[in-house]
Write a structure and sequence with these properties.
180 residues; alpha+beta; seven-stranded antiparallel beta sheet; 4 helices; 7 strands; 36% helix
Length: 180
């Protein structure tokens, strides 16, 4: 408490113009982050251009906490051996696995079979009931690069929500109270 109260004293001693400026500055930071995210979505063609590996199913290629950069250009065909991120109907979290088979039906529709490098069987057990292949529209993107372990911050914030609220609240207070 001895560290928190002086911060609120600073807010009380700000005149209205300074307080509005700080709130506007905070809004600019948030809107800039959103614009960067939307710009990445347009450039990469992916609804989620950056994802974090949440499990060890892709080891040794990717480890839990690795940050992946994705592209999802529709005119570039997916090939066997590429690592894709896909969504399954009824699941909230996308899956990062390697393509082991590509199938094109009579209508020209591409279907994929995937498997985690660290798994002993393909992913048909993970797919929706009755689904044997991943359709192209379920693919979020292909891994084009990664940064090891940077995503551990995201995993920690999801595993410990109170830590997330404290961290984000502290950052917000810092932006509002920092006068320069």
């Amino acid at each position: 408490m001895q560290y928190i109260m002086p911060m609120f004293d600073e807010v009380r001693h700000m005149n209205k113009r300074q307080l509005y400026y700080q709130v506007l500055n905070f809004g600019m930071i948030v809107s800039s982050a959103l614009m960067i995210w939307k710009g990445l979505m347009v450039l990469t063609g992916s609804e989620s251009p950056i994802v974090v590996v949440l499990s060890g199913s892709m080891e040794p290629a990717f480890h839990r906490g690795d940050l992946l950069f994705l592209t999802n250009l529709q005119d570039d065909p997916i090939r066997v051996g590429e690592i894709v991120v896909f969504n399954i109907e009824g699941r909230d979290i996308p899956i990062v696995h390697r393509v082991i088979k590509v199938h094109e039906d009579e209508g020209g529709h591409v279907k994929l079979l995937t498997k985690g490098d660290n798994n002993s069987v393909d992913d048909r057990g993970l797919y929706a009931p009755g689904q044997l292949w991943i359709r192209r529209n379920e693919v979020v993107g292909r891994a084009r690069g990664f940064v090891p372990y940077i995503g551990m911050v995201t995993i920690i914030m999801n595993d410990y929500p109170n830590f997330k609220y404290i961290l984000l609240g502290s950052l917000g207070l810092f932006v509002l109270l920092h006068r320069e």
